[in-house]
Amino acid sequence: MSSSLTAARVASAASAGPSAVHRRRALRAQAPRDRDVKSRAATAPATAPVADEPGTAPGGTRHPTQGPFAGTQLDSSKTIEELQPFYNGYRSGYRSVPPSDETFGYIDESAIEGEIPTELLGTLLRNGPAYFEREGDDLAKRYLDGDGMVTSVAFKDGKAFFRNKFVQTECFIAEQKAGKYLEPSIFTADDPRKPIWWHRTAVDMVGIDRGFTGDPQMKHNGAYNVMNWGGSLVAVDYAKPYELDPDNLDTIGHGASELSSTKHTSHYRVMAEKDGSSRLVTMLNNINWRNHTTTSNFCEFDEQGKKVSDRTFTFPAAYVHDMIVTDDYYVLFDCPVRMHLKNTFINYPQGKTSLSESIAEDTSRKPMFRLFPRHDGVEEKVISTDKFCFSYHHVNGWQEGDKLIFDTTTWPKFTLYFLDIVDADGKVFWPKMSFTRFVLDLKTGACDAFDLDNHPCEYPAVAPCATGRPYRHAYLCTSAHAAADNDEVSGPIHQLTKVSMKNTDPYCKEVEVQHYYPGDTRFCMEPLFIPRSQETSGVHGSGGDGEDDGWLIGMVNNAGSTTDVIIIDCKDFASGPVATLHLPRYVPMGVHGSFSAEYICGPDDES
Predict the structure, then answer these.
(1) What is the number of domains present in the chain?
(2) A GO term (biological process) for this protein (predicted)?
(3) Binding residue per annotation — 481?
(4) For 229-265, b where at least 16 C-beta lie within 10 A, e where not — what string?
(5) Is 267 annotated as a binding residue?
(6) Is there a cis peptide before residue 584, judged by omega within 30 degrees of 0?
(7) Which domain holds residue 543?
(8) Higher pLDDT among residues 171 and 214, named by residue
(9) Which end of the chain is less congested by CB atoms within 10 angstroms, N or C?
(10) Residue 321 annotated as lining a ligand binding site
(11) Is 394 among the annotated ligand-binding positions?
């Protein structure tokens, strides 16, 4: 999940107040600026061919599928072997991008199909691992191992300005200078530090260099998300955000503002408050297997980027990746995991597994929802569910009387699927996720669970006005295929899907599902919803038409050769993009991103 920073009130937060503007000017003075737009105009290469007409189903028939549980209409005409071309195309989306490919400039009109809506104002921001090898050393074999590259597309007056730049973390600078890998991330198996056993036992596990704390300090690659809030533009992976210059994406560094000084992860929410303002909510989770605890820290920032709330809670060891925020609670989905003893004490010290592979499925307990109070006077709660499942990315949630509704993407078997996605072939377990709703009873502690749609899905998004409120429309990346010879196997994430619930009743099970299928060799990344205007951005909690009165924007990878940005009118979803922008540089399959209602990363004028 990645919330879009585009609600009307969030737009004012992005432009911020005088203090934020003053801070931004000071930050800009610290970094060089690249202003020679004309000398490096961004023109697009030829696009990759596609097997099917964009917007058509795998068999050539037109989407959408409609009706209750339309997700059952997956194309199941192909066996696992026949799905291999789709997996091959998907895997090709992770090829390395060298830093020499950094560029900027307007996207040429010849590289745009259709027309960019003139009302569209703001900046698409994307982040993800992009640099996977140095001097022929492909040590970063795992997708999340790569160095982070931020990509921006700034929209104004029907034009688009492209820019991409790598996040200059301390390790990136040192490794570029050395021409080789020096430090592992939490996803690195083949450790560049030698001897491996010494560093992984004495240093990582015992903490001989840190007062025997046993808290591993791993490489930061700044590769998982990027957001613009309260005058600060930050890239973040885990715990250490890096401030970026909003003019040119140059790295200013960690600690340049309250937001970049606060440790947090790539997942956040933007909440509308009762006084009409908006708040950015961040979180940081730290597992300590030595004392079997997890510590979660939640911070809230006002529209000027000032930290106005800081709360910390401790509970039994658990891995949590994302959160839902409601009026009263920070909600974590504590899925049943435990320490993987063999990986932790045998395989990790030998360099056979990464630190991230030190957890495994725990079948001895149920999943639990942990509800932590946002305010004084609210009671902390723990509610379990009989539905045994796992989840990374959540859709949305809200409180309604004594009920708390929690929508997420779930799958029935634990997997570190970020290890699978690069080498996926469907022959080993591939997470077949469903769009699932949990209804928690805050009085009795009961929990009901049911699926809203069973298309294998990931990377959900909702309208900014709907965050933490009753809502009707959700947007996701989904698979279009299911293997004919194995009901546990689906094709890779391929298309964009709009799931529309009939109403906002917590127990509503009637949905309409529409798809945009981009073609057999084109693969959609995480989408973001952009409201059309302040007047049509929807009333908070209305579940009204404002939730789909806008555009869905996302990147599409053309089988590892080129990358596009597509813009879909959500009121006419099944018709496909109103504009397709062929980017001047290849962008690998990314992780997360956001949309800033502020025009940044582009030129100040048309010159």
Answers:
(1) 1
(2) carotene catabolic process
(3) no
(4) bbbbbbbbbbbbbbbbbbbbbbbbbbebbbbbebbbb
(5) yes
(6) no
(7) 8-596
(8) 171
(9) C
(10) yes
(11) no
